[in-house]
Amino acid sequence: MNKHFWNKVEILNIDDCWNWKCGCFTTGYGQYWSGATSVGAHRYAYEEYYNIKIPKGKMVCHKCDNPRCCNPNHLFLGNSSINMQDASNKGRLKQEPFYNCKQFSKEEIDTICSLFEENFSANYIGKRLKIDHKTAKKVYLNKNMYYKRAKEVSV
Ligand SMILES: [Zn+2]
């Protein structure tokens, strides 16, 4: 174990977030200077703890959605699309672009999502809802965001 690294982590109970105590990247991820380059502290923690090299193209994601957290039990390997999906499920993505998007009622979103879950094609769903298939897919992938917007509309 690299003491120099772990000394910079606030190690608590196994279920708690272990926050990085030092500087962070502008993205909010802890920044660790490993001697030659600065790396994401959570990535370093993952490699250190599990004693593996993160495969190319993979990223270390947070179950706890706390970018400072270095608790290996809160970290999992994913790729960027999993991370995006994960972030959008948690409503962490920037919302601005969505204000330009069409708003749907809760019932419409329900319908779109359940049709996708029943494996209907985006084309079919688009036609059925009289919307573009890309929009249908976008609603499904960002359902939490759309639900949130739907609520804002109806209240
Ligand atoms: Zn955590």
What does this structure look like?
It contains seven helices and four strands. By secondary structure, the chain is mostly helical. The longest helix is centred in the last third of the chain and has 12 residues. The mean pLDDT is 86. It binds zinc ion. Zinc ion (ZN) binds next to loops.
State the end-to-end CA separation: 54 Å
CATH class of the largest domain: Alpha Beta
What name does CATH use for the topology of the largest domain?
Answer: Homing Intron 3 (I-Ppo) Encoded Endonuclease, Chain A
CATH architecture classification of the largest domain: Alpha-Beta Complex
Order of secondary-structure elements: HEEHEEHHHHH
Query: What's the arrangement of strands in the largest beta sheet?
Result: 1-2
Please tell me the total number of domains. 2
Bound molecules: zinc ion
Count of helical stretches: 7
Please give the radius of gyration in angstroms.
Answer: 20 Å
Briefly note the structural class of the backbone: mainly alpha
Overview in brief:
The protein is mainly alpha-helical and 155 residues long.
